[in-house]
Structures are given as structure tokens and as C-alpha cells.
Design brief:
Elements lengths: L14 H57 L3 E8 L10 E11 L6 E4 L4 E2 L4 E3 L13 E4 L2 E11 L15 E7 L14 E5 L6 E3 L1
Antiparallel strand pairs: 1-2, 1-7, 2-3, 2-4, 5-8, 6-7, 8-9, 9-10
Amino acid sequence: MKIEKTDPGKKPRLAAAFTLVETMVVMALVTILLGLAANGMKTTWRSQQIAASAAGLMQAFSLAQSTAIRNNAPIQVRIYKFQDGDLTTTDPQFRAWQITGVNAAAQGDQFYQISELQRFESTIVMSKFPEYSSVVSGETVLMPGDDKYSYVAIEFRPDGSTNLETNPNQPWTITLLSDWGSDDKSKLPKDARTLIISPDTGAVSLY
């Protein structure tokens, strides 16, 4: 049997050490890739929620308009602002909508519910800044003396038009976005969606 002698001056191989380093590098890369994938999935999911909320609001406008024409009476879509513990911000946000009618026989403007109060998907809200949601210029306090509860109303008339003033320099917009970016006035997130309402025809376009 031939026995190989070990050279005492020869340094031991570091194969095991290199394997450990390589493993750590691979794990770090996998962690980064998983993080990027998770962030991408989160962005996609949020975009889908915003799109679903926008589609629901468009359907509400269409129903309100058709009901106003059919009943020969004004119908409103009200978007309510209030505090919601499900959001990441503690500031009141435009968070839900409802279709309402008016009782013309009653003294004053007595509104009644046509639909239940519907919240936007997940943590989606309407931007409270007029630069992005110009309809907030008509914001009305729901409870006198308490500005935490308010709403904006888009009213459809029997001829299909709205109560919004016709102004070529003032498009009537509603912008939906996730609540995490709702307090940033400087810019809109890339996945925000904007509805533009034609005051004369009541038509709604989505961008």
C-alpha cells in the first residue's frame, strides 16, 4: 500500500470555506429576487384593486344617470369622507360612495338611499386634493361643525346631464389611489386611475 505524505508547508484547501461563501451569496441573491417579486406582486394587486374601484364607481355613475332619466328626477352619487381605521393614515379620506335620490314632494332637499354604502376596494381612496380630484371643490360638510365627515355629490338630471359647471378650463376629475400615497400632494403614484366626467352628457372616461 502506497501512503502519500502530507507536505507540512502546503496550505490546506479552502474548498469548504468557498462553498460557504458561495452559499451565502446565493442566499442573498435569492432574498433580493424574492423581495423584488413580492413587491411586484403587491404593486400588481394594488393596481387591480384601484381598477376594480374605478370600474365600480363608473357603474354607479351609469346607474345613477339611467335612473334619473327613467324616473325623471335628479339622482346623486355621493362620495363620503371619514376616518377609517382600516387605512394606514389617520386623516379623513374619501372612502365610500352611495347612490341617493331626492324626494321632490318633501320640503327642502330630502334625500333617500337608492344603494347601500359601498367602500372602495381594500385601502383605495379618492384623492382629497383638487389638483387630482377637482370634484372636491363641491365638498359639503355632513355634520355642521365637524369637518371629519363630508361628501361630494355628482348629480345627474333627467336629461342625462350633471350639476357640474361646464368649463373648458376645468375638467371634472376623480382620482383613485392607494391610501399610502394619498397624503402626498406633490405627485401621483403610477398606478393611480383618473375618471373624467363630462358635465353636459354625464359620460365618464377612465384614464
